Amino acid sequence: MSPIRKATAVGTTALAATLAAALTACSGGGTSPGGRSVAAAPRIEVSLTGQQAKAGAPVKVTATDGKLKQVTVSGDKGGALAGTLAADGRSWTSTRKAAPGTGYTVQATAPDGGTAKASFATAAAAKVNKLTLAPGKNTTVGVAQPLSIVFDHPVKNRAAVEKQLKVSTSNHTEGSWGWMQDYSGKDRVDWRPKEYWKPGTKVTLKADLNGTDSGTTGGFFVRDYATQFTVGRSQSMKVNLDTKQLTLYQDGRQVKQIPVSGGAPGGEKASWKGVAVLMSKEGTINMRSETVGLGRSYDKMVDDSMRLTWSGMYAHAAPWNAAYFGNTNHSSGCIGMSDADADHLYGLAQVGDPFEITGSDAKGTVALNNGYGEWNVSWADWQTKSALR
After folding, report:
1. 109 is in which domain, residue-wise?
2. Tens of pLDDT, residues 55-91
3. Cis peptide before 3 (omega within 30 of 0)
4. Three-class SS state of 379
5. Are the C-beta atoms of residues 256 and 246 closer than 8 Å to each other?
6. Distance of alpha carbon 388 from its chain centroid, rounded?
7. Longest pairwise C-alpha distance within the chain
8. How do 299-307 and 280-288 pair as beta strands?
9. Nearest 5°: phi and psi at 344?
10. Angle 82-87-90 (CA atoms, 0-180°, nearest 5)?
């Protein structure tokens, strides 16, 4: 048997080194004691080597003599890196990147059955990036709900990250990613369809980010993420601040009209207009004016609270404004209604339902990042916000 070969540097980069292959057969082939031929072990080079290899790059395995039939690169944390064999059979390249802090074993098989093994390990990530996904897993949402990802740390390599985000739908819905700064100040990317979802659509996101570098100050992702949700019934709420009416539509049909009072016009207490997507149903909550920059004008426990923006616009029960429903916008920015109407609407509302707000008393349009404001951007403009356009 020939001795194990030592790794030798190739060229000027440490990423391409001839690794010692733990040979499973005599190096030149031959005959076993029983007269059977023994396959020769291939000699291979692996693009990553040592115990502190840099993560975030594909693994390339090259045959320095002969060809390869199959290559397996397995991680010590489970799973293997998928890859593609070159047409000439002389190299194999992984389609996923090597993840930080992971030990890998490479096994290469030649056409005649000979095998060689090598191993390396990647350095641990100096900084780890994580994310928060919305909507939640296995939820049912309204027709305006986007997929939304907020990152813990900045994402400079937006194109590289976006390439790893794969959305699939049960009916081939057209959509696009768009980057923005979240209301919290963090980096965020949303996927919205060209038009509202069709009811019953099943949506899956696979974020295969393990081993992806988010860029300077952001750190590496060290795991994959996934979520799935279903689109519920077609439902929308049209709020007209001029007529002070909220009209509930289901499947394009008007089913209920509710007299409301919006924000007092002419200042910061006015309501926003545009499409505001129902972000959450929060029930009974304490609303305090100082949290939204309105001094000490109110401090109330409010029932049937439905959040529409991060800046504090809700639809909710407002019995103290009963004299103004249907005739005057007199709230501090929210869409108020009677206890009975709010309770009825709250029971029917789905997270992800659009509130389409119009009227001259509004103070402006819901911003892109103030909740889910992407429906206030044209489809053409939304597409330009993708890092891959």
Report:
1. 8-121
2. 999 999 999 999 999 999 999 988 899 999 999 999 9
3. no
4. helix
5. no
6. 15
7. 102
8. antiparallel
9. -65, -45
10. 80
For residue 164 the two structure tokens come to 């790893």
Nearest to 277 by CA among 304, 325, 315: 315
Task: Tell me the three state secondary structure of residue 94.
Answer: strand
| Token code pair at residue 266 | 């002419």
- 57-71, 254-268, 278-292, 338-352, range with the lowest pLDDT: 278-292
Domain limit, last residue, from 232, 256, 285: 232
What is the chain's mean pLDDT, rounded? Answer: 90
Which pairing describes strands 175-181 and 187-193: parallel, antiparallel, or unpaired?
antiparallel
Q: Which of 178, 211, 232 is the last residue of a domain?
A: 232
Q: How confident is the model at residue 287 (pLDDT cuts 50, 70, 90)?
A: confident
> d(Cα 89, Cα 66) in Å, to the nearest integer?
9
Encoded tokens for 259: 């007299």
pLDDT of residue 41: 80
Report DSSP letters for 367-385, one per residue: PTTTTT-GGGS-HHHHHTT
pLDDT, tens digit, for every residue of 97-155? 999 999 999 999 999 999 999 999 999 999 999 999 999 999 999 999 999 999 999 99
Q: What string of DSSP letters covers 304-352?
A: EEEE--TTS-EEEE-GGGGGGTTT---BSSSEEE-HHHHHHHHHH--TT
What is the DSSP-derived secondary structure letter of residue 232?
A: -
Residue 388 lies in a domain: no
Paired strand residues for 61: 46, 92
Please state the separation of Cα 169 from the chain's center in Å.
15
* CATH number reported for the structural domain that contains residue 53 in this entry: 2.60.40.3780
Q: Token digits for 361?
A: 């008393």
- Domain assignment present for residue 1? The answer is no
Decide if 320 contacts 381 (C-beta within 8 A). Answer: no
